[in-house]
Write a structure and sequence with these properties.
This protein is α+β, with helices and mostly antiparallel strands. 60% of the residues lie in helices and 13% in strands. Strands 1-2 form a two-stranded antiparallel ribbon. Helix 1 packs parallel to helix 3, helix 2 runs antiparallel to helix 3 and helix 3 packs antiparallel against helix 4. The longest helix is centred in the last third of the chain and has 47 residues. It is elongated. It starts with a strand and ends with a strand.
């Protein structure tokens, strides 16, 4: 978009960076509070899944940086509140170090993929708006438009659409 020769930058971010950090900390803390009463009823692997779900939701809603913070924070909170000895960063069983590494790696990958998907969705919406504006401008300038030949449609299992659509038109 242009505004008197100057580009207009529209922010798609609903939250400031500090708000995203705060929301990430709150979400990870809420996951910890939700999972704490389940400690005797769920296996630790299932509690890890709750933290991974939180990372996914943060990545989709708040973006890449918040997802990285959520991944690291989730590993720390899981260690402190769920792994014996509880309420410390010490680990009594060396196997939990593998759990932490895998949990962090999976959380980071999930977060990055979800954030990339979010960015692509925002970009697609922006491009759609631009194409709609171009289409409306073009249509307003046409006197007439008609098919010059029979349109050919491509058949596909996933996405099908026009393969060739010759038209004739007159611009006013």
């Amino acid at each position: 978009m242009q505004n008197e020769g100057k580009p207009v930058i529209q922010s798609t971010e609903r939250f400031t960076p500090w708000q995203r950090i705060l929301l990430t900390v709150v979400a990870c803390s809420a996951t910890t509070l939700l999972a704490t009463p389940l400690l005797g009823h769920l296996d630790l692997a299932n509690i890890v899944m709750l933290f991974l779900l939180t990372v996914l939701l943060i990545a989709v809603s708040l973006g890449r940086g918040a997802a990285v913070l959520a991944a690291v924070l989730s590993v720390l909170l899981f260690d402190i509140f769920f792994v014996p000895p509880r309420f410390s960063l010490a680990v009594s069983n060396i196997q939990y170090l593998v759990t932490f590494a895998v949990m962090l790696a999976v959380a980071l990958v999930i977060g990055q993929l979800a954030a990339r998907l979010r960015e692509k969705a925002v970009l697609a919406a922006r491009r759609e708006e631009e194409m709609r504006a171009l289409y409306e401008e073009l249509i307003s300038r046409l006197d007439w438009i008609e098919f010059a030949d029979t349109p050919r449609i491509s058949a596909a299992n996933f996405v099908s659409g026009p393969k060739k659509m010759p038209v004739r038109y007159k611009i006013n």
